[in-house]
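Predict the 3D structure for this chain.
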Amino acid sequence: MKDIPKHLQLFIGVFVVVGLMGGAGWFFSSQQLDKANESKRSIQSKIRGLETSGAYPNAKSLEEIKVNLEQADALAAEVVPVLEETEVLFDEIMVGDKKGLSKDNWKKLLFEKGEQADAKAKEKRVSYAEDFFFGFARYRLESPKNEFTLELGRQMIGLFTLADILIEAGVSEILNFKRVLVESGTAFGDEELKAKVLPGGQGLYYVYPFEIEFIASPQALSKVVNGIAASKLILVSRFVSLKNEIATFPQKNDVTKLNTSQSGDEESDSLLYRQIAGQEKVKARIRVDMIVWKGEQGIEELNARVQEAMQKPKRK
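Done. Predicted structure below.
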């Protein structure tokens, strides 16, 4: 932020911190869920060990185990319902037993969402390059393989959600969307994000990284950051890079000399300065992670791993 004038640094710092609090909140919740699962695994392992050895805990120990299990369940109960609510947001990109759309239906949905975004962008006077296609420019002319449509569908939901946030905020121009290539082949232009889609929370969810770049006024940028934090999808702002279009700003005395009223009114001169300052645009680049909950599948996989670990013979 070294290129941003001092009169904007405090303002931008405040709303970026507020926006990033949404991300901090998610990571706190994620850690709570991980803690709950780790606690349950530890307790179950100890019980298994006691049963195997033929030793049993006394009444006090049994009460402690019961309390710990209740606390672990309570922690998980706070987080799981929130995650489950996000599952329905991906229904349109899945068919049958959690499978992706056919390649033709996937591409049809992509173009429908693109047309909707184009219409809204035109209404809100948000511009972008003619070859810009929300991170999926390669699919203007080709179709994905069926084996990749589920992963691509999740990315589609995430990127068009971000597009809607930018357009609703009234940014001046969308420059680029980047995503991880979950499919084979190469990206079109500069759409590839050098990162990986990774599991988190002991395998209970996936993390899909995106990067968005745009030009906006400070007011619109504030709406974008707040919109990401308030999204129905679980979106986490990882970092924000900002560059102001004006690297230096004239001194107040130089600005007030331009006051044609020549009234000599200090209050009028101060108002003029405030109207000029803070109106320049900012080029922003934001790294956003989308959290995709695996639902019952993730819980079943976790329980299976716990049971497998408990049944392994201990080293002597």
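Confidence is low (pLDDT under 50) at residues 6-18.
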